[in-house]
Amino acid sequence: MNIPVVNLADFSSGDPQLKQKFVNDLGKAYEEVGFVAVKNHGIPDELITHLYQYVQDFFALPTPVKEEYEIVELAGQRGYTSFGREHAKGSDAPDLKEFFQYGQDVEDGDPIKEEYPDNVTVREIPAFTPTLHDAYKAFERSGTALLQAIAIYLGLDENYFDQYVHNGNSILRAIHYPPITQEPKSAIRAEQHEDINLITLLVGASADGLEILNKDNNWVPVTSLPEQIVVNVGDMLQRLTNNKLKSTTHRVVNPPREKWGTSRFSIPFFLHPKSSMSLACLSSCIDADHPKAYEDYTAGEYLDERLREIGLKK
User: Fold this and answer.
1) Which pLDDT does position 206 carry in this prediction?
2) Which entry of 116, 162, 232, 268 is 20 to 30 Å from 146 by CA?
3) At the top level of CATH, which class does the domain 5-309 belong to?
4) pLDDT in tens, 47-102
């Protein structure tokens, strides 16, 4: 399935018509599909190349070394999470992956820093942590621009989301799906799920496998070109917009048997707001045909609930 493609350069071009077309195309795609491919996304190719290299270097470390960076009390929000610890909401089967998470670095003296645990520095690969930092900031800039376009589409002030995502609780997650060494119990590497956050930005993946559930209830593979990133709506944005924008169910499937011996790497950026942001449905998205579908939650309350549902928090 070729998902809709938008050009982020049009949004920042200074041309009002190009900007409005971008807003309309993005909003329409998020109402109908929930996923888009974004070109000219502003994340440098060289940075992406370095990021994937250091991510592969980290996961190639011996398991006991990686486990030194697993801090269970942080519920997977910083550092390493070992193979099979996370599962999809509503599923008991563990996902066939291990991952490393890097979070917000507050650099402007904002007191919100007290809410966030420190990031975990990997000693064995000196360039790994600084590269995660640079990638995090680049993703954050691109994600903020996309949310500005979404705000316009929803009839809000263009900068509506800025105050919530500046120093927000976003997460950069590096995922490793190891080679399959025996007949798997399931064809699924990561069970079907929806993302928790506002939007997810996914830069490349070292192998195919991502599939989304379409309106006809069929699973279809998602493909994008190397110079594009895939950006999808998460549950927080679906909730805020009272289901106007669609948080699409997706999964990662096993490769064909001849590729079982290969790893898959994937690096999504989960763009979260500050925990204090209200996710109460926008009044502009509620009417007689679309009654309010969700009770009022803050982003922090919702995240906490979901972390428990997926097994990362007790």
Assistant:
1) 47
2) 116
3) mainly beta
4) 999 999 999 999 999 999 999 999 988 877 899 999 876 655 665 666 778 999 99
- Domain layout of the chain by residue ranges: 5-309
pLDDT tens sequence across 180-193: 877 766 666 677 88
Reduced 3-state DSSP string for the chain? CECCEEEHHHHCCCCHHHHHHHHHHHHHHHHHCCEEEEECCCCCHHHHHHHHHHHHHHHCCCHHHHHCCCCHHHCCCCEEECCCCCECCCCCCECCCEEEEEECCCCCCCHHHHHCCCCCCCCCCCCHHHHHHHHHHHHHHHHHHHHHHHHHHCCCCCCCCHHHHCCCCCEEEEEEECCCCCCCCCCEEEEEECCCCCEEEEEEECCCCEEEECCCCCEEECECCCCCEEEEECHHHHHHCCCCCCCCCEEEECCCHHHCCCCEEEEEEEECCCCCCECCCCHHHCECCECCCCCCCEHHHHHHHHHHHCCCCC
Sheet holding 219-221, edge to edge: 188-193, 250-253, 210-213, 219-221
Instruction: Report percent pLDDT > 90 for the chain.
Output: 66
Closest by Cα among 113, 276, 269 to 197: 269
**pTM score, whole prediction:** 0.92
Residue 240 corresponds to which tokens in the numbers above?
A: 């805020």
